[in-house]
Request: fold
Amino acid sequence: MIKTASALFVVMLAACTTLDTPTMSERSTVVGDRVKQLTRSVQWRPIGTVPIKFNTHHPQGMVKIGDTFFVTSVEIRTPTKRFPQLQDGYDRDTGSGQGHVFKFDDKGNLIADLLVGEGSIYHPGGIDFDGRYIWVPVAEYRPNSRSIIYRVDPTTMKAQEVFRYGDHVGGIIHNIDDDTLHGVTWGSRRFYRWTLDNQGRVTNADIAPASLRRMNRSHYIDYQDCKYLGHREMLCSGLNNYQVKKDGPRFPLGGFEIVDLTTNQVTYQVPVEQWTESGLPMTQNPFWVEPATNGLRAYFMPEDEKSTLYIFEAEIK
Reply:
């Protein structure tokens, strides 16, 4: 069965933290509670970097289990090409590539490389860990397309297809309180909610996207990666590009948003004003956040191909 107890999720989360022996109930809420205390005045302090010792291609989603990291990535072999006008509802062709789920240690050494997707469906997205499985969406590299949703056993690195859907699912989380899956689409403009039965099977995958989707009313950032927080909330990171004046240079700004999964409404948002030396926002691609002794510890991997894992801490007073 896919359904897992909240206690299992809490134990796995606790293994990733430096928090001083809180109670189980405290552990289950600490990340969400502390993210909601972040403001623009909170300083993110760099505490370390880890050079990744393999070609990461174009990273997308990240989870951390103990001292081990799992990152999805798309290897682009033939870039997509835009059409002069829409063709069958698409703005570009499929291109070609390969989807990866990388498993690596805290020194940046590759442990395993799981290939995911098939044919034109090769673009993995943002991922989530529910205490037992890593949930991985893989889509065509174009909006309004098709996706396959997998669950991956992090120990064996075996992927099992759970269902397919007729839209580009760019990120997915498992709400273990309601046993539902929640997806975001290309640019995170749409939300989806899929229900699971007690055998772990999706019960509403046959409902047409136009009937099932709900629109994201927040347009501050496009989500790159999302995580389930408990209490029917998810935390998403992402970015958008802005201009200080018309025809002026564009600059990227990243941030976090918390989404209430019962209403599909953003309830909290805060910028993350940290960039690489080359100017990429830390929330360009995958992220992971866990409790630290006095606040939060965040992991970011914004760069393609030759990536660095950046580690920051924010003190919550």
Helices lie at 6-14, 24-35, 209-212. Residues 52 and 110 are 8 Å apart (CA to CA). Residues 6-315 form a domain with the Tachylectin-2; Chain A fold (CATH 2.115.10).
